[in-house]
Specification:
The protein is of the alpha+beta class. The strands form three sheets. Strands 1, 2, 3, 4, 5, 6, 7, 8 and 9 form a nine-stranded antiparallel β-sheet that branches. Strands 12-13-14-15-16 form a five-stranded antiparallel β-sheet. The relative contact order is 0.10. Its EC number is 1.13.11.-.
Length: 693
């Protein structure tokens, strides 16, 4: 109350001083200030002032644009912008006659809490306005020691920047780069580089130690934004983690979630817990991570409207130790409201076993969870690292090539490969020593005349006894008896590998991690006025905050990814080995397009000796790219539709640690015990970790 009285008195005093000085008889510039409404934050109108920098007249003493007198926010009224609750204020500036056009604003927050400034619009004439898109947090000046600077939306190259703004532009960039020292505070806007040295927690013991990724030949990796947290007592190169779940890792204010986005993130996280994570956590805490009850129970957990109580006993107690209290309360509230389950995927809506068919397996290599790995086979048999030749032979596949020889099918670009062999083999022995059972895999698929992909053969591999030695076995399609069960198990192992690659490589490494250093470089090197900055900025939105949360709860030692994906504690280390082959030039046109054309089949496979199947026009030249949209046939022969953002296939069970809802095929057994019995015939020689194929 006392603060409110003081602020009102201050505004009245300023008003009367302006009258006495004759300022309010000078040119008037009116504007509108929009602030997001956030709970628990102070009202910025009581303590916020804005000044303008001229774009046409420079101050001889500072070299900056001429600075106007401060103006306070007035007449706040509740509004909405794009469905989001905001408060809109009026602001009035009294300017000197030759002030010119404003090109930047300085916002001073004299309050005690930060607020999220959306935009400022100034009416400089009857038909002209200057707009400032801010969308950033403004912290109290008692913390920042400087006003918050925003530039108008007009773009300028460095050489074209008005003289009155050049010094401001350079000073702003210098402040964003920092000096690489000290722990970052939440109000600081500093973009500096660091390695991934916060994944492990060595103070908890050897089991929580993880290698530092980035900066060495052994573990290359993209850079992340530096936080500067204190170092571990056990390892002076690893940053400490204050809590089990750290939701407060430093993220610069310009790249932090808005309250709406944060609320959306929390809501989605809660739904993920209710729908999926809790059953996973339950299996982890109850010691049954390698088992599942049945496919029927999995469908019931994910899609059925009938749910069992899953937040009781040990699971609830463990969650209380992992997440903040308000988060637990929200989980309980959502559970009590009995939210809807995931919609039933179309592929199993009429036939619960349709997802197990070879046609669906082939379709999802292009239209499923991870379409980024499939490639056109360039030579047969496939050759891996060190020149090792695959054990798949022509006799394995030629009976399913529609009359072609293996060499002819390769030449016509009708054989494709899903290769999860070389990168897994490097870590496979250590992965399986964790008590899981994973195989490296190669899968060959054939593009048929009906434009569907059909698996030809699957090769599963384990490390052999000698250096570089391998143990391989090839599995072929089968529809009856024990051979059918073996084939389904082989497809399950491929699905495990493909799901792990999707989450760890295609999604995390190639999408999130690889882009963060470009965000940092853009903020450090390009002014907000630069046209390239304005082009890139929408694509960077929220990425750094998401990556920070990923390091906090997904990628860390003992995090969700290690608990649910097959590489376990070697997941991030394995992604570092794969990053070694990542090349920036190959991510953009024209090389990216050339790779796609090369791998997905640039040449038509139709020849005079192999006319198109009946039903196709004579001018049609089917290619794998069209096969991805034509759809395959389900087990009953009915067309299936391409997946949308909602998974379109039922999840297959996890083999060992891997969780892959929405992946492809799985064994036909309906319970873990049945699967184990089938596996006994599948695995010829027992082993303490993973039996030989």
């Amino acid at each position: 109350m006392l603060q409110d009285c003081w602020d009102n008195l201050r505004q009245k005093v300023i008003h009367h001083l302006n009258l006495l000085a004759g300022y309010e008889t000078q040119p008037v510039l009116r504007g509108e200030v929009v602030v997001y409404r956030t709970s628990g934050r102070s009202n910025p109108a009581k303590s916020t002032a804005i000044s303008l920098y001229s774009i046409t007249r420079a101050d001889e003493n500072t070299g900056f644009g001429k600075l106007s007198r401060e103006a306070s926010l007035r007449n706040g009224k509740k509004t909405k912008h794009d469905g989001v609750e905001t408060t809109t204020y009026d602001v009035v500036f009294y300017l000197e006659a030759d002030f010119g056009t404003p090109g930047a604003i300085a916002v001073k927050n004299r309050g005690r809490r930060e607020f999220l400034l959306k935009s400022v619009t100034l009416e400089v004439s009857e038909n002209r306005s200057v707009h400032f898109d801010c969308n950033s947090w403004v912290y109290p000046i008692i913390k920042t020691n400087v006003d918050r600077l925003f530039f108008a939306n007009t773009s300028y190259l460095p050489s074209q920047t008005p003289a009155a703004l050049q010094s401001l532009r350079q000073e702003e960039l210098a402040s964003l780069r920092g000096n690489g020292r000290g722990e970052r505070k939440e109000w600081e806007r500093i973009y500096d580089y660091d390695r991934y040295n916060d994944l492990g927690d060595p103070d908890k013991g050897l089991h929580h130690e993880r290698p530092i990724l980035g900066g060495t030949r052994s573990y290359p990796y993209p850079r992340r934004c530096r936080t500067g947290r204190p170092l571990s007592n056990q390892d002076r190169a690893t940053e400490t983690r204050k809590k089990i779940i750290n939701l407060d890792f430093y993220v610069p204010p310009d790249d932090r979630f808005s309250p709406v986005k944060l609320s959306e993130f929390i809501s989605n996280s809660i739904r993920a817990i209710v729908h999926f994570v809790i059953p996973e956590v339950k299996s982890v805490f109850e010691g049954s991570i390698r088992n599942f009850e049945s496919f029927g129970q999995m469908r019931k957990d994910l899609y059925s409207s009938h749910r069992r109580s899953i937040l009781e006993g040990v699971v609830m107690e463990k969650l209380k130790a992992l997440v903040p209290e308000e988060f637990i309360k929200e989980v309980v509230r959502v559970v009590k409201e009995n939210p809807l389950k995931f919609p039933i995927p179309e592929v199993i809506a009429t036939d619960e076993n349709a997802w197990m068919s070879d046609e669906e397996f082939g379709r999802e290599t292009l239209a499923g969870l991870n379409p980024a790995v499939i490639r056109c086979l360039e030579r047969f048999p496939p050759v891996g690292r060190g020149g090792k030749v695959s054990s798949i032979t022509a006799s394995h596949i030629e009976k399913n090539l529609e009359g072609l020889s293996a060499d002819q099918a390769v030449e016509l670009r009708r054989i494709f490969i899903l290769d999860h062999h070389d990168y897994i083999m490097q870590y496979l022995r250590r992965i399986n020593e964790q008590g899981v059972c994973v195989y490296a895999s190669r899968t060959l698929l054939f593009l048929r005349h009906d434009q569907t992909l059909k698996p030809l053969a699957i090769e599963l591999s384990l490390p052999g006894d000698g250096k570089g030695a391998e143990i391989n076995r090839v599995f072929l399609p089968a529809s009856q008896g024990g051979e059918r069960a073996l084939w389904q198990l082989a497809k399950t192992h491929v699905a495990v590998n493909d799901s792990g690659h999707h989450q760890l490589i295609s999604h995390w490494l190639h999408t999130h991690a690889a882009v963060e250093p470009f965000i940092i470089a853009t903020r450090r090197q390009l002014s907000a006025m630069h046209p390239i900055y304005k082009l890139l900025d929408p694509h960077f939105k929220d990425t750094m905050h998401i990556n920070s949360l990923a390091r906090s709860i997904l990628l860390n030692a003992g995090g969700i990814l290690e608990m649910t994906m097959f590489p376990g504690k070697f997941a991030l280390e394995m992604s570092s080995a794969i990053y070694r082959n990542w090349r920036f030039r190959e991510q953009a046109l024209p090389l990216d397009l050339l790779k796609s054309v090369k791998f997905l089949g640039a040449l038509p496979w139709r020849t005079p000796a192999n006319p198109p199947a009946s039903g196709f026009a004579s001018k049609t030249t089917p290619t794998p790219s069209t096969a991805s949209t034509c759809g395959s046939r389900s087990r009953r022969g009915s067309p299936t539709t391409a997946p949308t953002s909602t998974p379109t296939t039922a999840p297959s069970p996890r083999t060992s640690r891997s969780s892959h809802g929405g992946t492809r095929s799985a064994p036909s057994a309906t319970a873990t015990s049945a699967t184990t019995k089938t596996a006994a015939g599948f695995l010829s020689t027992p082993s303490p970790t993973c039996p030989k194929p």
